[in-house]
Every structure is written in structure tokens, then in C-alpha cells.
Structure to design on (196 residues):
């Protein structure tokens, strides 16, 4: 792909960005292409080194705060057609309820993940307490109870390990889901075409 085509696609896909932000990003990539060509790459190799336009757009959108994107688009001079304004007002009970429901689901999922961390910490505390009591039982001559508490400690440690592994996987999954949701919201405001 040639520089002009690459820069043109970027400009089209990022047209919803604030003007100064868009111009800065386009000049950055244009200068990077020049720099790579000075280092011996062909124009096509320099452009291909960034990856696909989709990758570049996703990278740029991940760096720009959502509030900045929304503010830039809400303060633009575009204006909404009358039918869209009427539809927003009439549909407010529906779209606002859906928005609150989505937020509540995300909040509930993050609280569930936090609860799992708390459970894992409780398992650790219980395992430490079990070890302390087991040592006390061995010292006082109650060997059978001490051996039983060592078994309980091993079970608690295994539960702790499983809880931390599962919770870490859930945190990664929730992070990915949150990132994709924010990216989707940003893509509603940025770019005219080529949204994936």
C-alpha cells in the first residue's frame, strides 16, 4: 500500500477525532514512513511495517480517552436532524434503561470478581490460622487433631490456588470485555466507514 492510500484511509477512519488530534496522528505516521524510507525501506515496506489500517486505528483509539472523543463529537457543528432529536427524546426511557442495565451488568461482574479475590484471601487467612492451631495441638499432645488440621491446611491452600487462578483468568476476561466495549463506543464516534 502506498503512503497516500494509507494516510487517506486513516483520515477517513479517524474523521471523528478532534481536528488537531487527527492532524497530529496523520503527520506522525507520515513522518514515520519518511523515517523508515530514509533507513532503506521502500514506501510499501514502510507502510506495511505498521500492520493493517485496522490495527493502526485500534491502537490510536485505545490511546485516546473516551471523554475526549465524545466531547469532540458533541461540540461539533454537525447538529442532529430533527427526526433524530425526536427519536432520542421519545426513546429516552428505553435507551436510558438499557444503558443503566449494561452499566449494572458490568458493575456486577466486576464486583463478582472482587468477591472471588476476597474469598481467596479468606482461604489464605484460614490456612494460616489452621497451621497455628495445628502447631498448638502438636505442642499440647493432641496429635490426631493436629494431623487433621494439617490436612485442612492443605485443602485450604489448594482452594486458595484455584481461587487465585480462576480469579486472574476472570480479571483478564473482564479487562478484555471492558476494552472491547470502550473500543466499540469510541468507534460509534470516530470514523465514517470501515468499522469492524
Amino acid at each position: 500500500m502506498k503512503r497516500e492510500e494509507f494516510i487517506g484511509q486513516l483520515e477517513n477512519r479517524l474523521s471523528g477525532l478532534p481536528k488537531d488530534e487527527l492532524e497530529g496522528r496523520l503527520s506522525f505516521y507520515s513522518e514515520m514512513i519518511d523515517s523508515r524510507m530514509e533507513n532503506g525501506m521502500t514506501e510499501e515496506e514502510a507502510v506495511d511495517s505498521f500492520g493493517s489500517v485496522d490495527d493502526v486505528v485500534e491502537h490510536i483509539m485505545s490511546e485516546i480517552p473516551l471523554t475526549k472523543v465524545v466531547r469532540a463529537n458533541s461540540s461539533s457543528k454537525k447538529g442532529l436532524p430533527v427526526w433524530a432529536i425526536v427519536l432520542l427524546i421519545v426513546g429516552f426511557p428505553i435507551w436510558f434503561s438499557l444503558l443503566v442495565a449494561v452499566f449494572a451488568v458490568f458493575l456486577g461482574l466486576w464486583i463478582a470478581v472482587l468477591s472471588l479475590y476476597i474469598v481467596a484471601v479468606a482461604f489464605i487467612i484460614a490456612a494460616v490460622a489452621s497451621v497455628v492451631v495445628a502447631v498448638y495441638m502438636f505442642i499440647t499432645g493432641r496429635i490426631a487433631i493436629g494431623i487433621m488440621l494439617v490436612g485442612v491446611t492443605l485443602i485450604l491452600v489448594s482452594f486458595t490456588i484455584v481461587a487465585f487462578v480462576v480469579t486472574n483468568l476472570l480479571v483478564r476476561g473482564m479487562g478484555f470485555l471492558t476494552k472491547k466495549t470502550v473500543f466499540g463506543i469510541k468507534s460509534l464516534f470516530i470514523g465514517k466507514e470501515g468499522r469492524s
Q: What stands out?
A: The two ends are 20 Å apart (CA to CA).
